[in-house]
């Protein structure tokens, strides 16, 4: 029915043929953001990667139920079982309700996903909306004897679980090695084992978000929500579970343990993990001062950037790397992607201007096979894009009268490119609009420059602020003034 798709499965560490449990239906769960701050670029890359996967599965004809959660409680600082809740902390600092923080950053996250033309998931459940399901899961794991309660908190017993199951299965790690690489418990710790983790955490009276439970007032451990919500919406066993690769060693490892403990089955057949971002070869991190937010990348308003790049250029740049490779940000690489993206969009626009002839030299079937071969090899978008650039060359030669295409083939080519460029890669043309306003912007930038030269700062500021109000940002540099959409 379908061509064979191969997916790299973290759990087996090899590419496996994709065989859904109940074809054509596919269940996919992806760990969503913790909504306590602006979504960062690494997260954007993860969700753009899973958007590509979602779109390609639909292209193949699968009916996908895509669940991506919102973490709005239980995620503590340092990703552990102690410390402040990330959302509560932000709420206290801003003197706001935790749910105001959640709403603000959920809206911001959704806006950013729209800017990147990322499709919304089928279901977007929240941790606070599934407290009952999480409590039920803790009860089940307690009944199975794989968790224990200490003074209002409940912990998962990793060593007991490992007697019958393989705790480190996702990353191919042995329990002894994991134990050797973990710090000893402090004298105050309630946990019995070094690797044990909280399923339910007793809340101090001042903790802002807490719920009644059989063990007293408390809140769920961070890993629990994904186990409870994936099984609720996709069943005890489903096809794909994904997230950033930093989640694999702990969050996903604990998720598997919780699901297996609760129902005896491994939750997902294919585990997909996306790689990280680097900047000029260094890991992107706030402490190194080399991390930027998406809007800083769009406006170019960051010391490491020499100009801004539009959202589709950034997305195209991300898709030019395979989702399992690290992706390095540099001005040179972004400039190259910008050129490439414009070349592709210009070729797409040329399709309507091509002259058809009796002769035909374009083999649509062969192209389609190449595109599918690229994507069927673990969603290899960089290879797909390289194939698309070959088509760009062909389109340009037809336009220059150096090659021929028939009317039927041209219609097929348009629909094939539309499918892969717009529906599979999720790219849209933002330059046709840009091209139209470019002369107008240059005109305004020149008036502002003249005003500044005459020291007429009232006029120059009026232009800058006025443009900012309607969504255009000007950036001055030694080379002159450039503009970008905000
Ligand atoms: Zn998760």
Q: Your description of this structure?
A:
It is built from 16 helices and 15 strands. α7 packs across α8 and α11 packs across α13. A hairpin with a 4-residue loop joins β1 and β2. With 486 residues, it is of the alpha/beta class. The mean pLDDT is 92. The strands form five sheets. The chain has a four-stranded parallel sheet with strand order 4-3-9-10, sandwiched between helices. The protein is globular and about 75 Å long. The structure holds zinc ion. Zinc ion binds next to loops.
Annotation keywords:
4-stranded antiparallel β-sheet; binds zinc ion; 486 residues; 15 strands; globular; 4-stranded parallel β-sheet
List the helices and strands and how they pair.
Blueprint: E1 6-9, E2 14-17, E3 25-30, H1 41-59, E4 63-68, H2 86-94, H3 98-115, H4 131-143, E5 147-150, E6 153-156, H5 158-164, H6 175-180, E7 197-202, E8 218-220, H7 224-234, E9 238-244, H8 248-263, E10 268-274, E11 277-279, E12 282-283, H9 294-299, H10 311-319, E13 327-329, H11 331-350, H12 364-376, H13 381-399, H14 407-424, H15 431-453, H16 457-469, E14 472-477, E15 480-485
Parallel strand pairs: 3-4, 3-9, 9-10, 11-13
Antiparallel strand pairs: 1-2, 5-6, 6-7, 7-8, 11-12, 14-15
Helix pairs in contact: 2-3, 4-7, 7-8, 10-11, 11-13, 12-13, 15-16
Zinc ion binds at residues 31, 226, 251.
Mean pLDDT: 92
Strand tally: 15
Which structural class should the secondary elements be placed in?
alpha/beta
Determine the number of helices (DSSP H or I, runs of at least 4 residues). 16
What characterizes the major β-sheet? 4 strands, parallel
Identify the overall geometry.
Answer: globular
Gyration radius, to the nearest Å?
26 Å
